[in-house]
Each structure stands twice: as structure tokens, then as C-alpha cells.
Design brief:
Strand order of the largest sheet: 2-1-3
Strand content: 15-25%
Helix content: 25-40%
Shape: extended
Radius of gyration: 27 Å
CATH architecture of one domain: Irregular
Distance between the termini: 81 Å
Order of helices and strands: EEEHHH
Number of helices: 3
Number of strands: 3
């Protein structure tokens, strides 16, 4: 095997925002994650809402309104929907 064909594997630590530290091997050193099995609601059995309103506000600030806008129907779509109704009344 070629020596330069494989990535370098390090003994690394993965640190969660809750403070839990895991030690493993990875090609990236010292990873930081936002949620892990020690604090995730699926594994802990707790139901916590993680700043849902803050995410919506952040989205609204970035992209404008949070309401969906309906595009105007195309002229061909309007004509197609009106023709069958005219034939039914005749």
C-alpha cells in the first residue's frame, strides 16, 4: 500500500456543549459538537424545546417575511381551469 494514500488518523476528543467529552480516533482533531447522546432528548427521555422561536426570528431577519407567498397563476393555467366550467354550463 502507498503511505501517502491514506489520511492521518489522530486520537481526538469530541466535546459537547453540555460538557461531555468523548475520546475516539478521527481524521480531525478536537471536535466540538452542539448536541450528543448525553443531552439529546431522544436518549434522555426529556422533552425540551431548543430555541424554536429564536430560529424562526433568525430566519425572518435573514430572508424577510416568514409568511409563504403564493405566486400568481400563469395565464395558461387560468384558461385551462375556466374552459371545463364553460362547457359544463352549455
Amino acid at each position: 500500500m502507498k503511505a501517502e494514500g491514506h489520511p492521518t488518523v489522530y486520537e481526538t476528543s469530541i466535546t459537547c456543549t453540555c460538557g461531555t467529552v468523548y475520546t475516539t480516533k478521527s481524521t480531525v482533531q478536537n471536535l466540538r459538537i452542539g448536541i450528543c447522546s448525553a443531552c439529546h432528548p431522544f436518549f434522555t427521555g426529556e422533552q425540551r424545546f431548543i430555541d424554536t422561536a429564536g430560529r424562526v426570528d433568525k430566519f425572518a431577519q435573514r430572508y424577510g417575511s416568514i409568511r409563504a407567498r403564493r405566486a400568481a397563476p400563469k395565464p395558461s393555467d387560468v384558461a385551462a381551469t375556466e374552459e371545463p366550467a364553460a362547457e359544463a354550463s352549455a
